[in-house]
Write a structure and sequence with these properties.
Layout (H helix, E strand, L loop, with lengths): L1 E3 L2 E3 L8 H14 L16 E3 L2 E3 L4 E3 L1 H8 L7 H13 L7 H11 L10 H14 L15 E6 L4 E6 L3
Antiparallel strand pairs: 1-2, 3-4, 4-5, 6-7
């Protein structure tokens, strides 16, 4: 079960365990005297949007609408458009390897509020980002006893890490 403030998702590894998982969830809700709004509940759903992500049987995927919003953008021509771009990138940050490093040219332009300049470095980073967004990774839970690899990257500007299960 995944719970975020007032959003909840009950996802079972096997279909035949789902009723048991729901029973357990409802028992906890009753014990805590919490109520659900039937109009906002959906049952027997194999996938859908949850917290702006796409939850499927395979795992968690980036919301295609968020990707399309960036893919459809032209190069920013002012600070407001750069802010819009960085906000859209931030919404996908958990799917973007070395997110800070990839977005650094955009963040640097935000420092120059009066003299906006879209540099060649910004343009290259923008094109690279769009190429990267075309093949974002799928996020999945680790499987017990599988070997996991922790990759760490550091530069003078950022530190990032990713936990990977090779297939």
């Amino acid at each position: 079960m995944e719970v975020y403030v007032d959003d909840m998702l009950v996802k079972s590894k096997k279909a035949n365990h789902h009723v048991e998982d729901l029973d357990e969830t409802f028992a906890v809700l009753r014990k805590c005297r919490l109520k659900l709004n039937p109009g906002k509940c959906a049952f027997r759903v194999s996938g859908g949007r949850f917290l702006e992500f796409m939850v499927t049987q395979r795992g968690i995927e980036a919301n295609p609408d968020k990707i399309k919003a960036i893919m459809d953008m032209g190069p920013p021509t002012n600070i407001n458009e750069v802010q819009r771009l960085t906000g859209r990138i931030a919404a996908l940050s958990r799917f973007i390897s070395k997110f800070v490093e990839k977005g650094l040219p955009f963040f640097k332009t935000l420092r120059k509020v009066k003299n906006f300049e879209w540099t060649k470095e910004c343009q290259q980073a923008f094109e690279d980002l769009k190429t990267y967004l075309a093949k974002l990774p799928l996020l999945v839970k680790p499987v017990t006893r599988d070997t996991l690899y922790l990759y760490i990257s550091s530069t003078p500007q950022a530190v990032s890490s990713v936990l990977v299960r090779e297939e």
